[in-house]
Design a protein that fits this description.
heterodimer; A: 353 residues; alpha+beta; B: 187 residues; mainly alpha
């Protein structure tokens, strides 16, 4: 270290806004003690912290209220208002894990409770302070199926919210459980199948519902989907929504419709980071792919013979898609642009939702 | 055993909380610094069983994320030099000699630091203020030691240049002693 370097480091150290005396004073202060006691009094919430891959499209799909299958067990057949089991509470808690404070939904997990029941399935919900809610379906066969949240601003746009979890592989006899909430004035709800058969769906607490498609309608519902219709006391239709056919509920089907399918690789510890991007270029004549960061710098990404690509961002770049999207651009052999797709952090898309 | 866990966590808190608070105080308002300590150690409490043997870089890494999240939530980011110039408390300073010249030098150094690119400034702050080793600073920033060394080298070079320029300007047109020296930078 040269004299000049040493002198410079001394000047910087001397400019430190936090002095040793400040440190000592704070460490022995009542504030420090209060912070410690507050933490020790809090409940320990053990979360799975292995890095996971989260697909940006899943977040978008949440916005239209179709949810994918998830994890472990619970049971139905309880009284409405019963507190949600720990697995459901944990799933509600986890919707905010890794989100910046301004994008957290903060579901009222402590007040999460049972809102609707049918044979073999139950629906739990937790309110959001903005008037929205989170819900989760629990089935006897597959347990808790993943939390789906609807912010208050989105509630009005969904006359009947539909959540239809499924588990691969789907066959003609795979069970279909549908749940959600009726967000318009309604005194009854019915399911209408493609063959004209209808069935009444009991409304639970707070206008939530959950029902299982009858066995003899399963094949038709998988192929054609079904419609839900809400009516007021006079029988007038006040809202309707369609449960799409199983094929179009599968993420792979949606992925294939996109010129460039983009899946961001994230860690749930911090959804503002993008660790990598992967997916598939579905435009057949694309030969190369380029990622353009918000600061306009670009990086070339290789694509294989099937159009698949995977690129891990350097650590110094993992924050660069937090607040602004970058762009993936596919080019053909002549260097012509053939497709583009935005790419941004989960937190960015979450903020738009 | 829960009691043992609490005791071990309490030891961790008592040995490291002031380090985390100082880290936050160098980058945020004093009132925010306490919140950053609370949020950081709340994460540590929940993840206590996974804590590495040397917890300091890990804790500062969490504090860094907490600060980043708070900045995204609240755009009121006021530079440290601006707070100092406005007389807002940011701690008494490490070795303030109480003279006007000492205060001016301190402000000049802080202003020059704020003039550096983010990554170079953070490398310098971690080494000079938070007293991390180059290896720990690199771990915390998620970069290699070589990268950290390059950032620190560039930071020192630019700091020296900025402070030399400021010294030349001060000699050419001396400012009133009570006026803090500032190196202008749009925030």
């Amino acid at each position: 270290m040269t004299d000049r370097t040493r002198e410079l480091m001394t000047m910087v150290r001397d400019a430190d806004p936090a002095s040793p005396q400040d440190r000592t004073n704070w460490a022995t202060s009542t504030q420090a003690e209060a912070v410690l006691r507050m933490i020790l009094a809090s409940e320990v919430s053990v979360v799975d912290h292995e890095p996971k891959e989260y697909r940006t499209m899943r977040v978008v799909l949440v916005a239209v209220a179709i949810v994918l299958a998830a994890a472990a067990g619970a049971a139905a057949g309880e009284i409405l208002g019963t507190p949600a089991p720990a697995t459901v509470q944990q799933d509600f808690t986890n919707v905010d894990v890794g989100m910046p404070a301004d994008l957290r939904l903060n579901p009222d997990v402590r007040d999460a409770r049972l809102a609707a029941v049918t044979e073999g399935a139950a629906l739990y919900f937790a309110t959001l302070s903005d008037g929205g809610y989170c819900l989760e379906i629990v089935t006897d066969a597959d347990g808790a199926r993943g939390a789906v949240c609807t912010p208050g601003a989105a509630v009005g746009s969904l006359s009947i919210e539909i959540t239809a979890p499924f588990t691969d592989p789907i066959t003609a006899t795979s069970p279909i459980v549908v749940g959600g909430r009726v967000n318009v004035a309604a005194s009854s709800l019915e399911a209408r199948f493609a063959d004209g058969v209808t069935g009444a769906i009991p409304l639970g607490a707070e206008s939530f519902y959950v029902f299982s498609v009858p066995n003899d309608e399963l094949a038709g519902a998988h192929t054609n989907g079904l419609e839900l219709i809400a009516r007021d006391a006079t029988g007038a239709v006040t809202g309707s929504s369609r449960v799409p056919p199983s094929e179009t509920r599968r993420p792979e089907a949606t992925d294939r419709l996109m010129p460039i399918f983009v899946s961001t690789i994230s860690t749930h510890e911090d959804f503002t980071k993008v660790l990598g991007v992967e997916g598939r270029v579905n435009v057949g004549h694309a030969v190369r792919l380029e990622l353009r960061y918000p600061d306009a710098t670009t990086v070339r990404i290789a694509i294989d013979g099937q159009g698949r690509y995977r690129y891990l961002l350097p650590s110094g770049r993992q924050d660069d898609l937090a607040e602004l999207p970058g762009t993936l651009t596919a080019y053909d052999a002549e260097g012509q642009q053939v497709a583009t797709a935005p790419v941004a952090s989960v937190a960015y898309w979450h903020g738009l939702g | 055993m829960p009691d043992d866990r609490e005791a071990r966590f309490e030891r961790l808190f008592r040995s490291q909380a002031d380090v985390v608070r100082s880290y936050a105080l160098r980058r945020a308002d004093p009132e925010d610094a306490d919140d950053v300590v609370a949020e950081t150690f709340l994460v540590a409490w929940r993840r206590f069983d996974d804590m590495p043997a040397d917890p300091r870089p890990w804790l500062l890494g969490v504090a860094r994320h907490v600060l980043a999240n708070r900045r995204r939530a609240d755009r009121r980011v006021v530079s440290l030099s601006a707070r100092l110039a406005q007389g807002v408390a940011v701690g008494s300073g490490a070795h303030t000699d109480g003279t006007a010249a000492g205060t001016e030098l301190r402000l000049a150094v802080i202003s020059a630091l704020e003039h550096l690119p983010d990554k170079e400034r953070e490398a310098m702050r971690l080494l000079a203020w938070d007293r991390l080793s180059p290896a720990d600073a690199a771990t915390m920033l998620g970069c290699s030691r070589a990268t950290l060394a390059v950032r620190a080298h560039r930071a020192r070079r630019k700091l020296a240049m900025l402070l030399d320029q400021e010294g030349d300007r001060a000699r050419a047109a001396p400012a009133p002693p009570s006026r803090p020296i500032r190196i202008a930078k749009e925030q």
